[in-house]
C-alpha cells in the first residue's frame, strides 16, 4: 500500500509540474533554436555572435571571471565552448520538454542556470533580468528533480510499458518515479534553504537588493582608463568598459589631452574618432573597440590599448587624458611618468 501511495503522489507531483517542465525546457531549447535555426549566431564573423554576448559577462562575473577571460582571449576555444554550450542547452531543453530522463536533465537545468547567474546576474537595464532568470532556473531545476515527470512524458510511457531499465534503481534518480529517499523533508528543506541563501547572496552582491543602497551596473556606461603613459612620440592608454547596457555601446565623441591646468593641448572630435586608425587599437577580447559611423564604439566588456600621436606637443606639459561619452559622461586619468 505504501508503494502504491508513493507512486500516486509521484504521478501527481510530476503532473502538476508539467507547465513548469514545458516552459523551462523551451527556455533552454530556444537558445539553440535562435542561435542556429533562426539565425547563425555561432559564426564569429557574423553580427550577433554569441561569443560577444559571453564577453559582456566578464567585468562583474562572480567566481567564474578567470574562465570567461580565458575564453574571450582564446577565440578558437571560445567558439568551441559556445557550440558545446548550445548543444547542451538543446539536448537538456528538448529532453525536459519530452520528459525523458527528467531528473538527469533537471541537473543540467540547475547547472546552466547557475552559470547564467554567476556570469550575468548583474546584467539588466530596467529589471534584474539575468539574475531573475538564473535564480528561477535553479529553483525550477530543483523542483523538477524532486517531481520527475508523470503523464505526458516519455519517462512515464516507458514506466507504463514496463521497460526493464525502468525497474532499475538508477532510473528513479535519473528518470522519474517515486524518489527513493528516507528523509524527503530534510532533502527538500536543505535544498530549498541553500537555493534561497544563494538567491539572497547574489541579489545583494550584484544589486544591493537585501540591504543598503540599490545599484544597477547596467544603466550607465563606465569606462576605466589605465596604463596611461608616453612612449616615444605617442600617448598610450588602456580602456575597459565595465558597466552599462549590454545591447548598447559607449559612444566616445571626444578624447582630450590636457595639461595640469585642465587646458586642452589636443582634442579628437567625433569625426576624428569615427576615422580612428584601426592599427592604433589593440583589442584584448572578442568584444572589440572600433571606430563607428559617428564615434568610437566601446562595447560592454571590451578592453583595448589605444595609441594617440603627440607630434607638435610639449611632452612635459602632457598631464591628463579625458574621454567624453555621447551621454555627456566624462572619464579622466593622469599620465604615468
What does this structure look like?
- The chain has 337 residues and is an alpha+beta fold.
- The protein contains eleven helices and ten strands.
- Strands 3, 4, 6, 7, 9 and 10 form a six-stranded antiparallel β-sheet that branches. A four-stranded antiparallel β-sheet has the order 1-2-8-5, with no helix packed on it.
- The longest helix is centred in the first third of the chain and has 24 residues.
- It is elongated, with a radius of gyration of 26 Å.
- The model has no long low-confidence stretch (mean pLDDT 94).
Topology:
Blueprint: H1 2-16, H2 18-38, H3 50-56, H4 65-72, H5 75-98, H6 102-120, H7 129-147, H8 154-160, H9 169-174, H10 184-207, E1 222-231, E2 234-243, E3 250-258, E4 264-268, H11 270-274, E5 281-283, E6 290-291, E7 296-298, E8 303-309, E9 320-325, E10 330-334
Antiparallel strand pairs: 1-2, 2-8, 3-4, 3-7, 3-9, 5-8, 6-7, 9-10
Amino acid at each position: 500500500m505504501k508503494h502504491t501511495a508513493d507512486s500516486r503522489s509521484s504521478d501527481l507531483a510530476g503532473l502538476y509540474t508539467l507547465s513548469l517542465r514545458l516552459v523551462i525546457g523551451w527556455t533552454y531549447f530556444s537558445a539553440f533554436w535562435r542561435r542556429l535555426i533562426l539565425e547563425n549566431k555561432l559564426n564569429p564573423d557574423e553580427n550577433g555572435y554569441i561569443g560577444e554576448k559571453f564577453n559582456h559577462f566578464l567585468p562583474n562575473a562572480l567566481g567564474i571571471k578567470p574562465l570567461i577571460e580565458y575564453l574571450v582571449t582564446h577565440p578558437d576555444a571560445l567558439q568551441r565552448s559556445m557550440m558545446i554550450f548550445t548543444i547542451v542547452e538543446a539536448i537538456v531543453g528538448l529532453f525536459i520538454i519530452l520528459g525523458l530522463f527528467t531528473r538527469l536533465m533537471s541537473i543540467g537545468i540547475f547547472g546552466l542556470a547557475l552559470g547564467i547567474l554567476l556570469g550575468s546576474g548583474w546584467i539588466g537595464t530596467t529589471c534584474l533580468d539575468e539574475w531573475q532568470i538564473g535564480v528561477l532556473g535553479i529553483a525550477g531545476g530543483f523542483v523538477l528533480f524532486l517531481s520527475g515527470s508523470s503523464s505526458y512524458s516519455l519517462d512515464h510511457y516507458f514506466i507504463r510499458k514496463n521497460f526493464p531499465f525502468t525497474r532499475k534503481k538508477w532510473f528513479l534518480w535519473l528518470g522519474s518515479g517515486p524518489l527513493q529517499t528516507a528523509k524527503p523533508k530534510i532533502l527538500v528543506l536543505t535544498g530549498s534553504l541553500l537555493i534561497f541563501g544563494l538567491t539572497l547572496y547574489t541579489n545583494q552582491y550584484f544589486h544591493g537588493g537585501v540591504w543598503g543602497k540599490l545599484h544597477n551596473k547596467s544603466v550607465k556606461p563606465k569606462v576605466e582608463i589605465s596604463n596611461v603613459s608616453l612612449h616615444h612620440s605617442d600617448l598610450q592608454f588602456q580602456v575597459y568598459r565595465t558597466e552599462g547596457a549590454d545591447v548598447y555601446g559607449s559612444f566616445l565623441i571626444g578624447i582630450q589631452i590636457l595639461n595640469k591646468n585642465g587646458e586642452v593641448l589636443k582634442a579628437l572630435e567625433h569625426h576624428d574618432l569615427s576615422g580612428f586608425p584601426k592599427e592604433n587599437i589593440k583589442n584584448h577580447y572578442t568584444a572589440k573597440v572600433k571606430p563607428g559611423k559617428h564615434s568610437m564604439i566601446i562595447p560592454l566588456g571590451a578592453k583595448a590599448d589605444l595609441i594617440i600621436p603627440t607630434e607638435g606637443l610639449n611632452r612635459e606639459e602632457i598631464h591628463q587624458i579625458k574621454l567624453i561619452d555621447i551621454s555627456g559622461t566624462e572619464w579622466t586619468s593622469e599620465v604615468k611618468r
